[in-house]
Design a protein that fits this description.
Layout lengths: L1 H31 L35 H20 L4 H24 L4 H18 L1 H29 L6 H14 L4 H21 L11 H16 L3
Helix pairs in contact: 1-2, 1-3, 2-3, 2-8, 3-4, 3-8, 4-5, 4-6, 5-6, 6-7, 6-8, 7-8
This protein binds zinc ion (ZN).
């Protein structure tokens, strides 16, 4: 099985790299309202780019801008795909679910990172998809997924209420509650908590780092959703889907 995996992993990584390019394209175009199929342009100067620039990040010939975020996202996506298929090679449906879920989580993380927003249109269809794929896996997976989604929503609603009570303002956005519901549905009731804790811990460390380096002198917004989504990807790779 190990030898089989070695042949298969570069293919999984290549598919992840291609789909990562589409995720970056969606993440850039969704907030600006640009149609997905419009000819690619340079994000910095707007000069038209080559038709395949969404797949192969290249330096702009007009202004010299290099789309670093695209390369990072495509590499993350390629790595996640390879890791998911390596980890769940004996359970192809789990490998499929983890790599697909990771793709949507990277999309949500990328948009939140740049815009501090979590779009309904990215969360709700993914929530439906997670539910349908859990049903395909087994009735038990569906139950774990539904219960996980409900429990994660309640937990984040409680955080939200606590923030209102202690600071007279919400400590979380409504998008974070939706994202928690999605993470609960992907991982299931028995696994969502450690995944959320991973993301919350990473966000807390990042907040402390920002404070220590005094870059948080003005109101610095921490893209909390990006940390939660990345924690969920790690959780899916460690513990698997619901
Ligand atoms: Zn340019």
């Amino acid at each position: 099985m190990f030898e089989g995996a070695i042949v298969f992993l570069p293919i999984a990584a290549a598919i992840g790299f291609v789909l990562g390019g589409l995720v970056e394209l969606t993440a850039v175009r969704l907030p600006s309202g640009t149609p997905l199929l419009e000819r690619p342009t340079c994000p910095s100067c707007g000069a038209s780019a080559s038709r395949w620039s969404w797949l192969f990040p290249r330096r702009c010939t007009a202004c010299g801008f290099f789309p670093r975020s695209q390369l990072v996202l495509q590499s993350l996506s390629a790595g996640t795909f390879a890791a998911a298929w390596f980890r769940f090679l004996s359970a192809p449906l789990d490998a499929f679910r983890v790599s697909l879920f990771a793709l949507f989580l990277w999309l949500i993380a990328r948009i939140d990172w740049a815009h501090h927003l979590i779009y309904l249109v990215t969360v709700v269809p993914t929530l439906l998809l997670a539910t349908i794929l859990a049903l395909l896996a087994s009735p038990r997976a569906l139950l774990l997924s539904l219960a996980g989604s409900a429990a994660a929503t309640l937990l984040f609603l409680a955080f939200y209420g606590l923030g209102q009570l202690l600071y007279q303002r919400p400590a979380l956005g409504s998008g974070d509650i939706l994202l928690a519901a999605l993470i609960g549905a992907m991982l299931g009731i028995d696994r969502f908590l450690p995944a959320l804790l991973l993301g919350m811990t990473a966000a807390a460390i990042a907040a402390l780092w920002l404070l220590a380096h005094r870059t948080a002198h003005r109101v610095t917004y921490l893209p909390y959703g990006s940390f939660l989504a990345a924690g969920a990807v790690a959780g899916l790779l460690f513990w698997g889907p619901a």
